Input
Amino acid sequence: MIQFILYNLGLIITLPFTVAYLIYRKIATKQTTQGVKEQLGIVNIRKDIKSPIWIHGVSVGETVAGAAVVEELLKQSNEHDIVFSNTTRTGHEQSLKSIKNAKQLTYYPYDFFFPVWRSIRKVKPSLFASVDTEIWPNFRFVLKRYKGKSAIINGIISNDTLKGAGFFAWLYKWTLNNIDLFCMQSEEDANRVIQLGAKPERVIITGNCKVDNARINVPTDEIKATYSSYFPNSDIDKTLVFVAGSTNPGEDIPVIEAYKSLKEKYPNLKMILAPRQIKRGEEIGDMLKERGISYNLRSNTNPIDFDNDVLILNVMGELAKAYFLGHISFVGGSLIKKGCHSILQPIAAGIGVCVGPHTFKAKDLVAQAKKWNIGFEIKNSKELADKIDEILSSHETQAQISQNCEKMLNTNKGAAEKTARAMLQLLNDGTILKL
Output
């Protein structure tokens, strides 16, 4: 109880700053009034929901992983309905797209006592599971008082979390003691959560659930049609394609410089550049124009009469398919300290992926990609160009990478199924699944 009191005293002391931040966030992210109400614990839960399993994914990435688990839970049992929550507006929008069979979608409460208490009292979850790294001390404590089971799924513990946990070791140990099951992505993550205070007998390794949703099938005809719409004045059979996905400010120029240097050796090399923020299309176009590189914007619906070198993919929803046009890729968020966006899409397309040194948000997948020799760390524009050159110059290397991509995907297959099985076993008899 002393930990509960200390934690909530800390929240009270920082309350003015928290309120100011939440007001700023509501304005900046254009969050709806309904969303704010739900985060304050004012939730209108459907009356026909039975024995709910509540799954929480903070934003987009966690929602994608959670979607695979939801699908498996409903496949394995019809005794529970699903409530799915998010913290961010973008996460909620992703839920509307990918969490098709949840009984209700909502926002997650702020971790103050009364919003948490009101939400748990309304939903009455038989099991609550958060995706990746979320622990939320008040929520876990109140849920335990209500006799609800608690889990972390697709769990990952970053270097920063481990380093920053020292001063708050008491808080982590208390909170983790209120969690009944830890489904971790890797052995390293399992060891780290135990180091933070989780009981070893509650920890299992299930793999990365995001991999289960990574595979997509793009027919050859569709690939050719997509290429023709991106580069209408060139032949797919006579070109090579470099795909730079989810680039952020600070990454576009290194990528463009690498492409420019490669273009001298490979005149038939095209580039698809997909900025993380699609409104930056014109800005990136100016960067290309300054370097004498021809380009077209995907948002441009007018026919072009020139052979463009670069297609700026400034629209939503096409990047996964675009990787199937590629021979090699780069994934952004990794040359800057953002943590790296998902590398699964290029791997699912069977091509190698270059990343910068900042990969803490995708460390398990990046480590696996390196192990299978399909992921390559680069530090700057020159190293990126050199690695792309090495791969483009060898058909044998490209073929081997494609085979290894398939092997890596197969290694992670079934993570969501194992996670769902572990959750249901915990609910049914209170025991931990043995893998």
The chain has a mean pLDDT of 92. The longest helix spans residues 60-76.
